[in-house]
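Can't paste images in this forum, so I'm doing it all in text. The chain is below; anyone willing to post the predicted structure tokens underneath?
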Amino acid sequence: MLENPVNGVKARGRKQARKIQPRIACKTCGRTTRLEVHHKDENPTNNNLDNLEVHCLWCHRQEHKHMRCSVPGCLSRYKALGFCNKHWFRFKIHGDPLVKCSGKGKPKRVEA
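Text version of the structure:
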């Protein structure tokens, strides 16, 4: 099973980054609302100040626009938590992005 990014190491790294990096204004556009911390190397556990940038929600999305789903074999665009829309909903409902529910009986885990 894939690491649960909500409860795993990645989530702790993001939370720590929010504490380390002061969020005053977006580096790209200067907005002062809806600020987020961006990891330049896309590694949420690397919280060196040199690796952290502050972006507003909109600019942060632009930074991650090139990202694809983290499920092996899936080439869909990233939506949230590293998953595309399909795998994100599966993760949200079943706790596993590889679970597929046919509507009858128990959900079954499928490989991407």
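Helices lie at 9-20, 57-63, 85-94. Residues 9-20 form the longest helix (12 residues).
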